[in-house]
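Changelog note: in this version the structure field was regenerated for every chain. One regenerated record is shown below for reference.
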Amino acid sequence: MARIETPKRIRGTQDIFGEEQRRFAHVVETFERVRKLYCFQRLEIPVFESTAVFARSLGETTDVVSKEMYTFEDRGGDSLTLRPEFTAGIARAYLTEGWQQYAPLKLATHGPVFRYERPQKGRFRQFHQIDAEVIGAAEPAADVELLVLADQLLHELGIADGVTLQLNTLGDAATRDAWRAALVAHFEAHRRELSEDSLARLEKNPLRILDSKDPRDRPIADAAPGIDDYLTADAGAFFESVTKGLDAAGVAWTRNGRLVRGLDYYRHTAFEFVTDRLGAQGTVLAGGRYDGLIESLGGPPTPGVGWAAGVERLAMLIEAPAVEASQVVVTTHLDVLSDKVIAVTSALRRAGISAEFVLGGSAKKRYDKAQTKLPLLVFVVTEMPIETRRAPTIYIDVKAGKGGGRLSGDEAEALGRQYLDSAGTVSEVLPEERALADFAFYI
């Protein structure tokens, strides 16, 4: 018989388990807890959308659309794309589901996203993002709230000290048009010195030349005119309100005048939280204001601002949480009592106490196996001699577990009684039963 070859994991994907999974889960759980403090509502959107959703929102000429999207044709002939980010899908839902009636909306979500990129440290083809958006709020206070939320998230993850908030303004539409014209004139004057990629961007997306990594472009980009010379009074006042709000909230920031977003629907605030602990993949959270996005999808002019962060990148920066051990492991030395072990374990779980049981293997080794799970307590279900046995009593001997630190016998017994009291009815055993069990338990 031919050997069956096991399918391999697809390049750019990951199987998350153990310490890596605990880091991952801690990031998501912390995000969920913090977004509730800010009253952001959780939402779910499809993993795939009509390709037009991303082509319009991200721009046909961007690398994401032209090179990185997972696009396919379904059996009905429709072009569909696995989401490369969340914002476009959320904007589509805002329009098609009639969520305008609830504006302004504070929304949050997390889940997998997909981009066909070269896999490297912190970068995958299927990866995960946490995402926060405010749609329908034109005030600078919305930008401030999102930035303060992000800052608190990083603090609660324990990584804020190694991360810097870089902030810039892209101004309003008039600012952007004037600045863009000045940039095009500057880059045209140096056309012969630009890289091939920047020459292509000059025709379609000139702002992106500013963040080129090509050494041929850097001197030209560094000498380019800055946006501050073209800010309208309204745009300047908006940015000042954002920075004052951050100062009032105690959020540290630095100005990065070369931080840009290439698409025309971006307005005003652009920001990145950056670390030097991840090498080339230094940005851990990024976002900005996109007041023209919903209009590009066929909706009315609608303000919006948001950010996203890669869960995997954040997880690489945090300390691994400790393994969550069971509060109780239930076992027995007697096979005939296996059903009672299962009954006690089930009662504890219904009472909200984490518990598992050990039944397999040699009866005399079960207690040792239970202790390897590092519980707070071990409950050993025992049997009484026929002459003292009281049906349907379950007799339980309580032992301190190896995960309970240095619990004394009395402390372990007191905690065991507390757990059993919450799961059923417990009473002291008779004096003649004391040598075999601590408690008589009734479910």
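Spot check on this record: The chain has a mean pLDDT of 92. The chain has 14 helices and 17 strands.
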